[in-house]
Amino acid sequence: MPKASTRSLTSSAKPADEKITINLGCVDLGQIDLLVQEGFYANRTDLIRTAVRNQLAAHGEAVKQVVARKTLTLGIHYFTKADLLSLKAARDKLNIRVLGLAVIDPDVTPELALATIESITVLGSLQASPAVRAALRTRIH
Predict the structure, then answer these.
(1) Is the pLDDT of residue 118 over 90?
(2) Which is an annotated Pfam family here (predicted)?
């Protein structure tokens, strides 16, 4: 089955960082604040980002193996209205499997999305209009 063409987002269209919430014990938080106060890190976020990146690097090979096994596409993938119209004309459907960011153009209608997207699996973030998300809710895993 042909895949829809994808393009990387340029730096001018860089996606926003995702916000997460974590719970930390008082002692851990106090140690983080001490390291920030002593100048090891600019702020709490800097320390947490560094810790996360270090853990991701430590497990990088395992991530690569899982990506290959689950046939995920790594990175940022942008699905345009033209991509989906081409699929529709070919009477083909897309199975989106992304580790990173999948973006469905805001000008894609719910009807076009339903006609061309069979399933969506995103480990990371999916950006789509609320109407497209609602239309595809049973196809998003």
Answers:
(1) yes
(2) RHH_8
